[in-house]
Design a protein that fits this description.
Helix content: 25-40%
Radius of gyration: 25 Å
Number of strands: 2
Mean pLDDT: 78
Strand content: under 5%
Distance between the termini: 28 Å
Order of helices and strands: HHEE
Shape: flat
Low-confidence stretches: none
Largest sheet: 2 strands, antiparallel
Number of helices: 2
């Protein structure tokens, strides 16, 4: 697939930026013409998924976080450093 790659000149970059801006402006203009509001979510939530705005997920306290942390140092949770590389 190396044959598909080529260096892009400054003129080509400017032309690509101009085309991208036109596409975005056209799309934005079309969105502005849409009338009405969607009254219900288009997301079909399966069983066990929380609804947006649910308070339940915000009840995780500092104490619970520290109870679940495998290693703590004072007021800090100690995490692994660069173990993924």
């Amino acid at each position: 697939m190396d044959f598909l790659f080529h260096k892009v000149s400054e003129n080509e970059k400017k032309e690509i930026q101009k085309q991208a801006k036109k596409i975005m402006d056209d799309f934005s203009g079309q969105l502005g013409k849409v009338k009405g509001e969607i009254s219900e979510s288009l997301i079909d939530r399966g069983e066990g998924q929380r609804d947006e705005g649910s308070v339940e997920c915000n009840k995780i306290s500092r104490e619970i976080m520290f109870e679940n942390a495998p290693e703590k140092k004072g007021d800090f949770i100690v995490g692994e450093e660069k173990s993924w590389s």
